[in-house]
Amino acid sequence: MAWNEPGNKGNDPWGNRGGNDQGPPDLDQVFRKLTSRFGGNRGGGGINAAAVGIAVILLALVWGLSGFYKIEEAERGVVLRFGQYYEQVGPGLGWKATFIDEVIPVNVNNIRELPASGMMLTMDENVVAVQMKVQYRITDPRAYLFNVTNPDESLNEAMDSALRYVVGHTTMDDILTTGREQVRQDTRVELEGIIEPYGLGLTVVDVNLLPARPPEEVKDAFDDAISAQEDEERFVREAEAYARAVEPEARGRVQRMEQEATAYRERVTLEAQGEVTRFVQLLPQYLAAPEVTRERLYLETMEKVFGNTSKVMVDTEGNGSMFYLPLDKIIERSGSKSAPKVGASQMSESDSQPSGTFNTNRGANNRGGSIRQGRN
């Protein structure tokens, strides 16, 4: 028989044995029965104190464990207490009060990069496309987080301003060719001067100027101009190399000529001094025997004169024919130091040198006939 059929008594699954209850038990009653099993009912339905204590301990444990944090070696932690700056912590494991403190890690070793580019007007009123990248690092985490709203965007605007200022004070040729390094250095100095008053907590590591280019409409003309400048620089370097190669040779020739001139001057000076000394020594002899001294000087002079000319001996026959003998050639062939004899002609003792020119007539006196100088 079903529990709800007429005449069924005491089979109600909800415990209605007398038939007086019209529905399921109240949830409040079920809850009271459950709490009574943990220690009884106090004050008509209050929660057990032991259960509350256990719950509080569990919550405190969870709260305490949730406060542990870790800061990496390359980071620094900025601690906020109730939303305001409290302190800065270093790398390692730490603990914070959850819901009270907040720790923001900031990487201070990572080098960040920020690009900037645009069409800019140069000092000579030309337009050039310039691209630049700045590398920076966070050095003050507190200033980086709280001094400005967006430090990266502020740095980007400052770099654009510095780059436009430097490009506006530089000619286009310098930006495209030889003045790129100066533009880079000036831009870095200007950028550091702009961001210093704001206290961004950043340090500029390097500024890289990428290859600039003119507008596409005039690119071909500027390429030709750059090629011409490169050719000019190449010719200048070649000329400098040639100058470095020729200059030492010229200096060597100059030094050699100076040394030769100095040696010639010393030689002439010494010869002149020697002649003076010889004449001084000759003066007493001339005073003692003037004729003999004059004759000796004459013979010595003629010896020097004939020593620098070719000598030819002439033997005149009775019929007027002449016979020439080149004495210097004969002496070279024979190797003899004495002069050869020709016919009945004789050379005098002073005419026996291998130089000079002699003309001896047949039938002349015993000094070798008439002597005359001749040249081939």
From TrEMBL:
Keywords, alphabetical: Hydrolase, Membrane, Protease, Transmembrane, Transmembrane helix
Keyword Nucleotidyltransferase among record annotations: no
Annotated region described as Disordered, given as residue ranges: 1-26, 336-376
Bias (Polar residues) ranges: 345-368
Gene Ontology terms describing biological process: proteolysis
Superkingdom per UniProt: Bacteria
GO function terms (MF aspect): peptidase activity
Major site of localization recorded for this protein: membrane
Compartments, as annotated in UniProt: Membrane
Transmembrane segments: 47-69
Gene Ontology cellular-component annotations: membrane
Keyword Transmembrane: yes
Domain spans labelled Band: 66-226
Membrane topology: Single-pass membrane protein
InterPro entries assigned: Band_7, Band_7/SPFH_dom_sf, HflK, Membrane_HflK_N, Stomatin_HflK_fam
Xref: Pfam families: Band_7 (PF01145), HflK_N (PF12221)
The family this protein is said to belong to: Belongs to the band 7/mec-2 family. HflK subfamily.
Subunit architecture: HflC and HflK may interact to form a multimeric complex.
Its biological purpose: HflC and HflK could encode or regulate a protease.
Protein name stated in the entry: Protein HflK
Originating gene: hflK
